[in-house]
Design a protein that fits this description.
This protein is an all-alpha fold and 437 residues long. It folds into two domains: 98 residues, no CATH class; 210 residues, Orthogonal Bundle (Farnesyl Diphosphate Synthase).
Amino acid sequence: MELLKKWLGHPEDIYNLLRFKMGGYRTVMPRIDPVSGTGCDDGAGGGEGMRFAISVDRAVRGARGGARGGGGGGCHLPARLRRCHGHAVCIFYLVLRALDTIEDDMTISLDVKVPMLHEFHSYLYQPEWKYMESKEKDRQVLEDFPTISMEFRNLSKVYQDVISDICRKMGVGMAEFLEKKVDSQHEWDKYCHYVAGLVGIGLSRLFSASELEDPIVGQDTELANSMGLFLQKTNIIRDYLEDQLEGREFWPREVWSRYAKKLSDLAKPENIEMAVQCLNELITNALHHVPDVLTYLSRLKNQSVFNFCAIPQVMAIATLAACYNNKQVFRGVVKIRKGQAVTLMMDATNIQAVKAIMYQYVEEIYQKIPSTDPSSNKTQQIIASIRAMSLPGSPMASRHHYSPIYLSCAMLLAALSWQYLSTISKATEEYVQAGEN
């Protein structure tokens, strides 16, 4: 009955889940065809190695449910990169997943892990290199790394140079933060840059190198970095409790130390009011990246690239709106509804629609700002800036305005088919997870 109530409360989710399941996902998140790539001018067709690499990608994303700071949507990439440019984004994703697996594996001692992170970019050019001692659940990317690196070496040199350079910088940054915690807000930005901002920069350079986008997209590293930081900070904020349970800490000490003696103290019931104030301050910090996100997205010309970049960003703003001033962040997992996620994926196909989505969710945050919150003035100020950039546009004006007849039909549909829709929800899990992460 809980699921039925959920459908009745959000009839638009039903419509978009059905649209998504009936083929809409192919439009918003086109997937790699394992046999595509023939006839490409760079000689990097879709041979056995590429088909195997794609199967690794699917297995890893299925086991992990998406990367916190890795390659995001994996192989949901634009057609030109997919068909005629050596599957560059997919290989970029798999390479970063392998690097991230090394960082995450707590069974690897620091004296082994640090040199591996520093040298990882060089392994791309070593045909036989692999690592068989990982205990991580997605260790397959390390055990089968020769196949991934072979496909990397089949890419055009311009793509190899981008991927290798990003891996080198990311490995050095990961090693730096292995032996220290995130203290200041500056270091929080720096950590997020290493694990996610560099991904945004690398993807942007690939988009420009493929000529899908103008050179400025790859050259403006500040905007590309903000794209990654917004996603990474959202994940870090949302995953407070999960990280605490696994012994990881990513919230900056400079912020949380004003509210508790230890970061773990925020999860104690007696500290919940201070915990929520800390949460709100970090969300306000993350919102400062939204203007850069909108500027970046406004420059994109290719529809597939736009969808690829925009979907995770609208997922992030919806997640922040759900987390803002929400005690549940310290008690469990706060996630947006699957139907809500699919609706966002179906809607975020142009810049005006994305601006309207951003406007909608910052308004939702604004309505929840407590007058006594220490960060309330700063939150209101950044929301005012986002409002100025994202006034509601006509494409989204009627998103939540349905006629009584439509609503009645939707509710009847929900009552008759909620069990079926629950199956649809599971079937779309892979696509939704790719967008959320």
